[in-house]
Amino acid sequence: MDSKRVLAGGAVVVVVVALLAAVAVPEAVASPRDDRPVRPGPVNVVDADIATGEITGQTAELELFATLDHRGNPAENVTVLFKATDAESGLLEAEREVAVGDLTAEGERRVSTVLRVPREGGYRLEGIVYRNDTRVDRFTREVSGVEALTPAYARANVSFVEDPVLEPVSVAITDAGENRTTLELGGWLTATGPTEADSLSVTFILRQAESNVVAARTTVDAGSLREGRSETVSADVAVPSEYNYYVDAVLTRDGVIIDTAGGVVNLDPSETIDRNETRREVEFDASDFEGDDGERPDRPETTDAETAVSQPGFGPVVAIAALLGAGLLARRRR
């Protein structure tokens, strides 16, 4: 028999047997790679954003967004842990874990959460990506000046005017009496948007410059301002003369302070003050600011007799005692 025919026949038999075995027992010819675990596809952070949410007087909401990119094989049990740490103390202030689930399709997935932190200082924000409880990627961001975020109740479309020439608070003397001076105070307001009627008021406070004692206080209704317009509100107050004062103007809406401004008034002819200068020690009499009659208390006059008694020296009784003592001493010596 030809050897070639024998080899060909044997090969045919082997192929037929292999095909029959594959049909009868599929696992017999399966690739050994099928038994190996499938490596999960990578998950990476490609973008991260921060926004602000609800702002209250004590807390601030920080909205964190992370964009995850997944490629290749499915990634199971993906989670993102968001954390906010105080930038100064290093203490953890808030954290939240977000479950993303299984990522099977390739592409990007956006994940977000909200962290509530105290409305103060700055924070280090971090997002850590886990896949089956294994850390695979992370991102960090920092925010500062959180205390500058304005709560909703303190937002307003009206404020004191900011102008390099025009002062927000003006002062004029309307009556200069011997002991009391009447001042007309004015405050310039600007509306950048619509305002609520009968909700704005301005309080003027006059503080004696050296003692910080409040000499006068008055509140006037600012009404409502038209958008894009500037108007002034004014009030009259009377204060003791010959003193210098700081003028504080406080703009409020429904009892909430929304803006402040300041000025000065110099009634002391011997010296003047500026708004930002260092205070000096000068004579101050608090009684000038007591009551509403405006009269300065008169200082008691000192008589010559009272002056003589108050002066140091020997009185007549002491002189007589000294003479008697000298006489007794002389008799003993004899």
UniProtKB/TrEMBL annotation:
**Residues in domain DUF7490?**
43-147, 166-268
- Source domain of life: Archaea
Question: Where does this protein have compositionally biased stretches of type Acidic residues?
Answer: 284-293
Provide the protein name.
PGF-CTERM sorting domain-containing protein
* Taxonomic source organism: Halolamina litorea
Glycoprotein is among the record's keywords: no
Listed A to Z, the keywords are: Membrane, Signal, Transmembrane, Transmembrane helix
PGF-CTERM archaeal protein-sorting signal domain ranges (all copies): 311-333
Q: Where are the transmembrane segments?
A: 313-330
